[in-house]
């Protein structure tokens, strides 16, 4: 009752915040439209498999399994729900699902209405999502609930003394497909042993899929041809303050910079720091591409394909909230650099231990690492092979889950 009351209060706060917060406004509007959308798009008698992802990153982890089910079982329909606007607004037109919508707030009335309407045959929760009332409703209706690519740490609420009542929800999950042995050990401390499989992270499957489907980008290929290129992806200001001075001082190096923020103000800040010719991707042509020594990617959706044009990669975010997608770069078999805020990222930690990736903490360590990797081809190739091999060796989680269930 306390949990449901808290969710109810949260839903009211979101509606109030919607008056002045754009993200809350999107969430409130999406919540309001969910049941209308379901009534319009649900096929009577359709057999639905329900995937739920909090946001975009979790969606990418669930995508390999989702697409495998869709490919192998065309008789099943896919319902994909998001909680965050940052996931839904980007993937609301995803053609790998029959219906994409927001997940209604986890209040008893919403849950009953949603589950009765959809009648899912199974539910896949990606990584962290454990909505108490939805899981209980599925249990009562004998709908199996699977946790995919889940990862647990001792500091999570389930494993604290005050979280024991909420940990009850974990026992209602039909099966956990966890990323690592530590997660399995922690679940065992809550009496959950027989329904846990350590299969790895489906994100590795996803980055391999992305590599196989990488876009052909003739202008980027021409820019990079025959040159030594650093691809810096999802960079923030502190990352750029390391990268750009080094680039300015090394005329033999070419830079492809894909900043996390691509508003005009930020792009102008980057251009003011550059002391060498640069070009925004959306302004590049066959006639002017050869004049640029730095190519600034000022649009979304290309970075995962662009990493393949570099000899080195830098993944941003490590001087802020946390690094972005390291496997997305490592899958191309190149060394990856990133900042110090990487401790909560399992794949980054593993790649660091192997020597396939490199942490930089300041300008001195960045310069030292870049100098070594730019001049020592043997070491660079060794690091790259380790990085690519790690991704390949850890792929296959989606196949394991699919084979187990179908």
Mean pLDDT value: 94
Percent in strands = 15-25%
Rounded to an integer, what's the Rg over CA atoms? 23 Å
DSSP strand tally: 14
Structural class based on helices, strands and sheet pairing: alpha/beta
In DSSP terms (H or I, runs of 4 or more residues), the helix count works out at 18
Q: How do the strands of the widest beta sheet line up side by side? A: 3-2-1-4-5-6-7
Uncertain runs with pLDDT below 50, 5 residues or more?
A: none
Q: Alpha-carbon distance between the termini?
A: 36 Å
Q: How can the largest sheet be summarized?
A: 7 strands, parallel
Helical proportion, percent range: 40-55%
Given the C-alpha coordinates, what overall shape results?
A: globular
Structure, described:
With 406 residues, the chain is of the alpha/beta class. 47% of the residues lie in helices and 16% in strands. It has helices spanning 2-17, 22-41, 56-72, 85-91, 108-118, 132-140, 164-167, 181-188, 202-212, 218-224, 237-249, 264-273, 303-306, 327-330, 346-354, 363-375, 377-394, 397-405, and strands spanning 48-53, 77-82, 99-102, 122-126, 145-150, 175-178, 196-198, 228-235, 253-259, 278-280, 294-296, 312-315, 336-338, 357-359. The chain has a seven-stranded parallel sheet with strand order 3-2-1-4-5-6-7, sandwiched between helices. α3 packs across α9 (202-212). The radius of gyration is 23 Å and the shape is globular. The model has no long low-confidence stretch (mean pLDDT 94).
């Amino acid at each position: 009752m306390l949990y449901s009351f808290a969710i109810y209060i949260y839903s009211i706060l979101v509606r109030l915040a919607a008056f002045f917060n754009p993200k809350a406004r999107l969430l409130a509007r999406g919540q309001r439209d969910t049941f209308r959308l379901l009534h319009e798009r649900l096929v009577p008698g359709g057999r639905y498999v329900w995937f739920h992802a909090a946001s975009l990153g979790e969606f990418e982890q669930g995508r390999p399994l989702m697409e495998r089910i869709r490919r192998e079982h065309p008789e099943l329909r896919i319902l994909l729900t998001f909680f965050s606007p940052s996931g839904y607004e980007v993937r609301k037109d995803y053609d790998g699902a029959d219906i994409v919508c927001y997940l209604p707030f986890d209040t008893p009335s919403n849950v009953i209405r949603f589950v009765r309407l959809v009648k899912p045959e199974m539910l896949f929760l990606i990584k962290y999502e454990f909505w108490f009332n939805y899981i209980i409703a599925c249990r009562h209706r004998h709908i199996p609930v699977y946790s995919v690519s889940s990862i647990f740490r001792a500091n999570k609420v389930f494993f604290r003394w005050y979280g024991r009542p909420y940990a009850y929800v974990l026992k209602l999950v039909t099966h956990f497909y966890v990323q690592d042995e530590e997660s399995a050990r922690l679940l065992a401390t809550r009496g959950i042993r027989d329904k846990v499989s350590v299969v790895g992270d489906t994100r590795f499957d996803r980055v391999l899929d992305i590599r196989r489907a990488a876009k052909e980008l003739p202008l980027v290929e021409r820019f990079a041809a025959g040159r030594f290129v650093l691809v810096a992806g999802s960079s923030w200001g502190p990352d750029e303050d390391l990268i750009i001075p080094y680039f300015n001082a090394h005329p033999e190096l070419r830079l492809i910079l894909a900043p996390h923020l691509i508003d005009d103000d930020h792009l102008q800040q980057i251009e003011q720091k550059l002391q060498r010719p640069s070009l925004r991707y959306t302004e590049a042509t066959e006639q002017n591409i050869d004049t640029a020594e730095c190519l600034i990617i000022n649009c979304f959706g290309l970075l995962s394909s662009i990493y393949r044009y570099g000899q080195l990669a830098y993944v941003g975010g490590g001087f802020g909230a946390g690094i972005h997608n390291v496997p997305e770069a490592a899958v191309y078999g190149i060394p990856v650099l990133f900042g110090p805020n990487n401790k909560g990222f399992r794949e980054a930690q593993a790649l660091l231990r192997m020597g396939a990736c490199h942490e930089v903490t300041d300008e001195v360590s960045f310069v030292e690492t870049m100098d070594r990797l730019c001049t020592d081809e043997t070491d660079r190739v060794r690091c790259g092979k380790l990085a690519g091999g790690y991704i390949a060796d850890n792929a296959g989680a989606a196949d394991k889950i699919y084979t187990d269930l179908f």
